Write the structure tokens for this entry.
Amino acid sequence: MVTAHTEDPYVFFDSEPSSGYSIDNLPPDTPVGLSAEIIEGGLMLNWLAPLDDDFAYHNVYRSDVMSEESAMVFTTVDSFYVDLEVDLGTNYEYWVTAVDHSGNESDGSNTVQISPTGLSTDADLVPDVYALGQNYPNPFNPSTQIRYALPEQSKVVLTVYDMLGRKVRTLVNGVQDAGYRTVMWNATSDVGTPVSAGMYIYTIRANDFYQVKKMILLK
């Protein structure tokens, strides 16, 4: 409420009262420096420790590159993870996110990939074709990861729409180098307001490539 005072201390005017509230919809910083080392019986992942005061835990994602199945997710409060259930004869891709106490999840870190020929990072990997992955998790609440692949430097626009075709959020709009990318959507609009539950469409346009997929937000 705002009060306007006149020269007479007994004459003043109050505005109509108004109220509001704030929500924590800001994700923590993206983990950096992800690396991997083959150890006896498995794989050890390491990355830089988080600096956010609101940090709660990390999600470690493991995806079978040759499978259409969703990535497996492991959680840890440490800045390392030992995977003793990995098949060193299979192509796996790993990436890490940070989650705060409100459940906001960061974008994915750089990736590392293990294959029968050894280890490599996403800086070493260039996909052969454009691709838009299915978001994970799906359905989701409160956030989801979207991964895509760029075989060459591209002007990328990745957008979320509602089922009526109205634009909800532009997640990416700029030139990016070739490689594998991850972006997070925390179920908010371009102006930062939470969106309602339901089905949404996300599209990618990268040079001449265009693809559409659906995802479901639960509340």
About this structure: The mean pLDDT is 88. The CA atoms of residues 89 and 117 lie 9 Å apart.
